[in-house]
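Here is an idea for our session: we take a single protein and study its fold together. To get us started, please write out a protein record for me. Start from the sequence, derive the backbone structure tokens from it, and show both lines together. Go ahead whenever you are ready, and we will take it from there:
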Amino acid sequence: MTEQQNLKEDSNKNLVGTAKVVPRGSKEISNLFGDRRSSYNIEGYDRVIADEITDQLQQGIPLIDKAVIALVVLFTLLVFINFSFTSNDAKEDPNIDKTLFVTKIIELVILILFVLEISIRCYQNGFIIYFSDCWSFFDALIIVASIILIILDLNLQGDAFTTISKVLRGIFRFLRLFLVFRKYNQVKKINNAGSRYTVRSPVEKVIEIMRDLADQFEDPDIIKQLNWGITHISNNTVYEPIIEGRKSEALGWLNQPQNQLMVSQESKRSNSIDIIYSNDTKLPESLRQDFAQNILKLDYDYFSLFEKYDSAILTNLMCYYFEKEHLFSTLKISPDSFKKCMDRLGSSYHKENLYHNVIHAFDVTHTVYFFIEKCNFKEIGKLTKLDYSILLLSAAAHDVDHPGFNNIFLNNTRHELAMTYNDKSSLEQHHAATLFKYIRDTELFANFSLQDFKYFREKSISMILSTDNAMHGKDFNKLKARLASNDFDPGNKDKGICFDTLLHAADISNPFKPIKNYEQWTFRVLGEFWQQGDKEKDLGLPITMLCDRRTTNVAKSQIGFIDFMVLPYYNTLQQIIPVLAEFMEQISENKRYWAEQIEHYQTLLNTQ
């Protein structure tokens, strides 16, 4: 039995709005934001603040809901027409009989359209989620019963209908009026059930207030001061000192770093300018071809590669990337030193971990490269060869030597890592420290200039620390504040926050993958969580969220993960890499899949 089947069997026994791109000069921008636009431009498009434009556009009513509202209004009119025409005064008029026949046919068509609409809703939201609302279920029964009644009414003539049937017909017509309330509530509620929420930081609110204030003044000095404040708030530089007078001396006392120039790939490196390294690492040809064919596919079956190559698969993947991008020759990195460093990284991932193992490192690195190449961040971020090395190495090392327990567990058990790093992102600090220890021990960057090394180290440490999920909300709000600024520049001053965002997005990317891979990762991560929960129970510690195998519904956990973390983050990420929008449907498709599984996993929980 395979490892995945074992995990699945164990779980069965134990049980768990898109940012829009609008052309420059579009009236839509002007109508929504006036002249407040980001200066960030790619290929003639303005990037607009995700939350604001998404909220504004989602307040509009989708086409399907407009059609439903129109049908409800027409349906209501037909009900009143039927009531009025079936009075005693109208029974003997043949014209009224014809009119009643026509209204019944129209009514039948409308009811059939309602059935079609319910089918579409079930497909979009999942059968279980749709009918979890008892009014939706009651409404479906009314519609089916009404269709049966009309068909009988059209086919049975004369005295075939008794007084009881007439009473039933009146009751059903009255009940149909509930459709008006049901459709109105669905327009507001069903489309967004379990998936729509808004989290805004105080920074975003302050920026919005200051922009509104700027619109109220005509004095250019006041507007300039407000814009100055907005810039510093969005740049997160509110607490940096403003130095006047003897600036150089003050900088020395305050230990402020001098402005550092952006390092380019052409910058001079150490004293070894004449060293030339080959970009050939002698990868097995079959593996090289496999990478070439599948490396940009989200449904890549890398699990089978791990069975064949074990931890060396990470080394092989990184060698392929560095060969492909000519990083050995350009950055003057020794392929032998690189292999040694990667082998140490790969072997330091714990094989016994169900989730935080070398396959996860492979997956995250593969996803980061997908963002770079397939989503064109290489052009958007104006990536140098040094930037490539930072993104790839940081991704490969982001969970190295992970013990299989989260930071909460380490803190509560007074683990040595928690004691070493003072309970502050202990795992992530350890991952970063381990990477740079291996870099030093293998002399990987022996030919780097001090400037290049400091640039690499600064960006890499920041990236790895950004993978701490406890920092997700805070870092997410910082990202949104930068995107809301007028000077957001992913190729220069905001390159660092973009690096952090890409790695964190890759680290939470399981719902972004086809279900065959996503489902495997789900059982792996929950299996690891449950092992921690068992340990916490044995030690008498509070059981961490999702770590209790007796209460965690697998499907609900994934829907919550999508709704509250992945989908909002990826919607915002599209502002940086717009091509991402082409792949977003996969997240919705996966959510529908899990929605259909909720009842199954709840049954397993109830019967254990």
Remarks:
- Strands lie at 21-23, 41-42, 45-47.
